[in-house]
Amino acid sequence: MNITLKSLFPLAASILSLVYAVMVLGQYLSRKKMHQLVWTISFLLFTFAAFAEFYSEVAGWNPTLYRLYYVSAASLVAFMGAGTVYLLANRGLAHGFLVLIVAITAAMLWRAFSVELITANFEPGVTVAGKAMPDSVRIFSPILTIPGTLALVGGALMSWWRTRTVYNLFIAAGAFIIAGSGSMARLGQAQFLYLGEMVGLVVLFYGFIRSREVSRKPRGDMITFRPK
After folding, report:
1. Which of 14, 19, 43, 86 has the fewest CB within 10 Å, making it most exposed?
2. Is the pLDDT confidence value at 92 over 90?
């Protein structure tokens, strides 16, 4: 194994995302709110995708791992957005959004296992991102990430506008950084993917921690974007 500073970014992101997933799962088990369950799924997807990136840096890609990684990385923001829709919108709309996300993800997964990978792009020491996946699979990615990002960032900004709680800005910024680094990678600028994921997750996690502090204080009937 060849562990480098570059490989430590996705490893750290994977560990932090797992911590986040466990915390939100604990909230779901005690409160049984649907948005908490969907967010738990999204951070488990993040945990897997980031760990796969770390593994690829130290041991290289294998086709099965890469296929699962690509679908997980493409869908995680969409599930984050679906959780936000459950938090802020009516249940019918949220159910419809989630069903759509699951259907697109399932179709993408089926397609990812049906195509031949461009294994020549599995270059040691080079961040592969989506370069080894044919365009017939990559086309699914923006269909998932764009509405997911709009829902997550838009929801956080809407809550900030209503309540002026600063942690919502951190949640929005973190989600934007994560989605933006993935979008840059899809455009061929993958050199900052791992760093962007790590920074975005730290910013989002900070917003989450701040939201827990605020949630302990009485705030009347304010509508806030928080994982509680």
Report:
1. 19
2. yes
Q: Give residue 207's identity as a one-letter amino acid code.
A: G
Q: Which helix (H) or strand (E) holds 213?
A: helix 193-215
Q: What is the mean pLDDT of the chain?
A: 85
- Least confident among 104-108, 116-120, 128-132, 183-187: 183-187
| E strand segments, 51-106 | none
- Its pTM stands at 0.86
User: In sequence order, which residues have a C-beta less than 8 Å from that of residue 78 and are 6 or more positions away?
Assistant: 101, 104, 105, 144, 145, 147, 148
Pick one of 1.10.10, 3.40.50, 1.10.287, 1.20.1070 as the CATH number of 5-215.
1.20.1070
Question: What dihedral do alpha carbons 140, 142, 144, 147 form, nearest 10°?
Answer: -150
d(CA 52, CA 49) in angstroms, rounded, equals 5
198 to each of 6, 12, 44, 142, how far by Cα in Å? 11, 7, 15, 21
State the Cα–Cα distance between residues 55 and 22, nearest whole angstrom.
22
Contacts of 184 (CB under 8 A, 6+ apart): 190, 192, 193, 196
Domain boundaries, the chain: 5-215
SS3 134: coil
Which residues, including other chains, have CB under 8 Å from residue 62's CB and lie 6 or more apart? none
Q: Do 212 and 228 meet the contact criterion of CB atoms below 8 Å apart? A: yes
Sequence-ordered list of residues with C-beta below 8 angstroms from that of 130, at least 6 positions apart, any chain: 70, 138, 141, 185, 186
